[in-house]
Specification:
- This protein has 252 residues and is an alpha/beta fold.
- It has 2 domains: 155 residues, TPP-binding domain (Rossmann fold, 3-Layer(aba) Sandwich), CATH 3.40.50.1220; 78 residues, SIR2/SIRT2 'Small Domain', CATH 3.30.1600.
- It has 12 helices and 9 strands.
- Helix 7 packs parallel to helix 12 and helix 10 packs parallel to helix 11.
- The longest helix has 13 residues.
């Protein structure tokens, strides 16, 4: 990686006025949260993802899912803090340079770094709380964990007896139309799309960087591994995300 490429990245940020970030698991691995697909360490290499229809159909499957969440590596998720990459994104949002953060992550670290809720578009939901699938009642995860520790299970919704589930989008679950619409609107407005830590293999989410480029925005891909969109990007950086972003935005 040359200083010229970093200078180019910095210049692209300076020249842009409507930056949209598209972030994936790679930005949070530097906070200690494992990604999903890396051989040996990825979440899905250690356990099979539960399909949404199975979660809904079987109380046994639901309780197994909750048990996996509250045992083992749960402390890694609960104690994870934003890293330099998150804070660099937050700095550009605060400065008015970035209009939105579209994220595939569910860890709430963008909000924890200072990005306002309304500027974080969570395509795959949020794992820091739970919701009733029927009435939408929100449950804080600390309360859910306390209930599980006491009863060795998570009970149905106290308001309507519906199924309580983390506020994430599971395999087989419909993508949230409101978030997809917000993401599309941000793409149509942006003049620079920065992909940070996404392999760009999960669709329909991964269509947004491609669409931004097609609409005339500049495209930067910052990811440790190659992606299928590297060939159309204006700049590709195979570097660590936190150190790179913090350097180019001047984060102390």
């Amino acid at each position: 990686m040359s200083q010229d490429e970093l200078a180019t990245f910095r210049a692209m940020i300076d020249e842009a006025s409507r930056i949209v970030f598209f972030t994936g698991a790679g930005i949070s691995t530097e906070s200690g949260i494992p990604d999903f697909r890396s051989p040996g360490t990825g979440i899905w290499t250690k356990m099979k993802p539960l399909q949404f229809q199975d979660f809904v159909a079987s109380d046994e499957a639901r309780q197994k899912s909750w048990r996996q969440r509250f045992t083992g590596d749960r402390k890694v998720w609960r104690d994870a803090k934003p890293n330099k990459g998150h804070y660099a994104v937050a700095k550009l949002v605060e400065a008015g340079k970035s209009i939105a953060v579209i994220t595939q992550n569910v860890d709430n670290l963008h909000q924890n770094s200072g990005v306002p809720d309304e500027q974080v578009i969570e395509l795959h939901g949020n794992a820091s709380y739970a919701k009733c699938l029927s009435c939408g009642t929100r449950y804080e995860m600390a309360d859910i964990e306390q209930q599980f520790n006491q009863l060795n299970r998570v009970e149905p919704c106290s308001r309507c007896s519906g199924i309580v589930k983390t506020a994430t989008i599971s395999f087989g679950q419909t993508m949230p139309e409101d978030k997809m619409a917000l993401a599309q609107a941000a793409v149509e407005e942006c003049d620079l799309m920065i992909v940070a830590g996404s392999s760009l293999v999960v669709y329909p989410a991964a269509i947004f960087p491609e669409d931004a480029k097609r609409r005339g925005a500049k495209l930067v891909i910052l990811n440790r591994e190659a992606t299928d969109l590297d060939t159309i990007a204006d700049l590709v950086l195979h570097l660590e995300i936190g150190p790179t972003l913090s350097y180019v935005v001047g984060l102390n």
